[in-house]
Input
Amino acid sequence: MPTLTVGFQTMPNGKDVDTHGVIPKMIEVVKESGLTYEVGPMETVVEGDYDKIMSVIKETQEVGIQHGATEVFTNIKMHYKSDGVSIADKKKDV
Output
């Protein structure tokens, strides 16, 4: 499968969850993944193989639960092209 670009936002939710403490741990998962990524104020964008990206998103969700969230909401946007698409491709004309 070609490279795709995915924007995702993982939001831990729970009565006593300190999101300022959990979100950096989630971002650490992305950093350690080896994927090309950009962290933005509202979402993180990654590029790579579909299965690897979905695995990283799943791991960020698990980190939320491990750190006290009772549930985790995740918004995902995917850009797929048969010949691949990168973050740099998407920013070329900006």
Notes: The longest strand covers residues 4-13. The mean pLDDT is 92.
